[in-house]
């Protein structure tokens, strides 16, 4: 695991991170209403829906890291009343492109 944040509110980031793997998997879970925005440096971004059910499933996105050199960070931006968690792992599966 490259890193994780648990029981977060508002905006926070993981990083700087580095990897030699061809891809990273970003897992995000959010409780509450609305969405959270996830930005993975120059790798890409996505929006994850929040769920009222605390047992609800999160969202997994894979980013190709072969084009980056050096370190990167992953930022999550949430709203008041949301609680979110994120974990980032290295992967070789489901590499985009």
Quickly list its features.
single chain, 97 residues, mainly beta, Jelly Rolls, 4-stranded antiparallel β-sheet, 0% helix
Describe the protein in words.
With 97 residues, the protein is an all-beta fold. The protein has no helices and eight strands. The protein has strands spanning 3-8, 11-17, 23-31, 35-40, 44-49, 59-64, 72-77, 83-91.
Task: Summarize the topology.
Layout: E1 3-8, E2 11-17, E3 23-31, E4 35-40, E5 44-49, E6 59-64, E7 72-77, E8 83-91
Antiparallel strand pairs: 1-8, 2-7, 3-6, 3-8, 4-5, 4-7
- End-to-end Cα distance, whole Å, is 23 Å
- Report the mean per-residue pLDDT as an integer: 92
In the sheet with the most strands, the strands line up as 1-8-3-6
The share of residues in extended strands comes to: over 45%
Q: Count the domains.
A: 1
Region (Disordered): 76-97
Biased composition (Polar residues): 80-97
Summarize the structure.
0% of the residues lie in helices and 57% in strands.
């Amino acid at each position: 695991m490259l890193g994780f944040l648990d029981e977060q509110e508002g905006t926070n980031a993981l990083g700087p991170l580095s990897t030699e793997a061809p891809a990273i998997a970003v897992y995000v879970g959010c409780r509450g209403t609305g969405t959270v925005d996830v930005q993975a440096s120059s790798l890409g971004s996505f929006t994850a829906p929040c769920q009222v059910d605390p047992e609800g499933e999160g969202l997994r996105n894979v980013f190709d890291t072969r084009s980056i050199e050096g370190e990167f960070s992953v930022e999550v931006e949430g709203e008041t009343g949301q609680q979110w968690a994120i974990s980032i792992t290295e992967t070789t599966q489901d590499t985009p492109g």
